[in-house]
Amino acid sequence: MRRIIDRIVTILEMIKFPHTIFALPFAIMSAFLAADGLPTIRQLFWILICMVSARSAAMSFNRIADARLDAMNPRTAAREIPTGKLAISQTAVFMTVMVALFVFSAYQLNMLAFILSPIALFIILGYSHTKRFTNYSHFVLGLALAIAPVGAWIAVREELHIVPLLLGLAVLLWTAGFDIIYACQDVEFDERVGLFSMPKYLGIAGALALSALLHASMVGVLLVVFFNAQLGNVFLSGVLCVSALLLYEHSIVKPDDLSRVNAAFFNVNGAVSLLLMLLTIIDIAVR
Length: 287
Prior knowledge:
Elements: H1 2-14, H2 24-35, H3 41-65, H4 67-72, H5 88-109, H6 111-130, H7 137-157, H8 162-183, H9 187-193, H10 198-228, H11 233-251, H12 261-286
Helix pairs in contact: 2-3, 2-7, 2-8, 2-12, 3-5, 3-6, 5-6, 6-7, 7-8, 8-10, 8-12, 9-10, 10-11, 11-12
């Protein structure tokens, strides 16, 4: 039993389970907007399973695809596969189970979610290879996370609408922006092994400027959501808080000082998604 528990803990460490906090709040937010109130417990349960299984599958696939590169990069050499804590075969089994669970969960929600599930998987798994041939891999990651609010809306209403598409666009811009910041740590490694990224293409200063532009655009899209979904002042206060958090994020990361990238990446962006979700739900509840 102890070995099984240790293995589970290792897998959760490998997939960075706490980082589920980035996209999941946007999915829940979208579900509440779609239901114009509280979704059913059944819907929320299967949305949660979809989110966790999809991200777990994507991270497992990423670790398998990047195993050789991770072993070469000093920043990632201590990850579970390069150090032998997990075998590629074990990771592949876990990934397969998560893929199956995602498709099953989509089927439990409704037929449209089930039909679109292979497309979602193609995007979230395919992202792992994009940095081998394009500088725009950050935007593909953004697209992968943007599926969360769109999928949650479909889970509740079984239809598409402009509101989740706008939320998805906001997530895409936000994710691409913070992933560009994170990628600044690997510029030298990317140059050495021939990988592609915006920091390598634009330089760190240029990449950080692009990231700031993307985050400013995200705030603009959230304001469009505010008007389009006819939300109230509580949601608007959430947008203002998001703006302040993103300003803080960019104030602590400088071209000549990347020592606080991890704080910007996890702490600030985790607060962005959780705070916006909470205030959106309160706004829906009080209107």
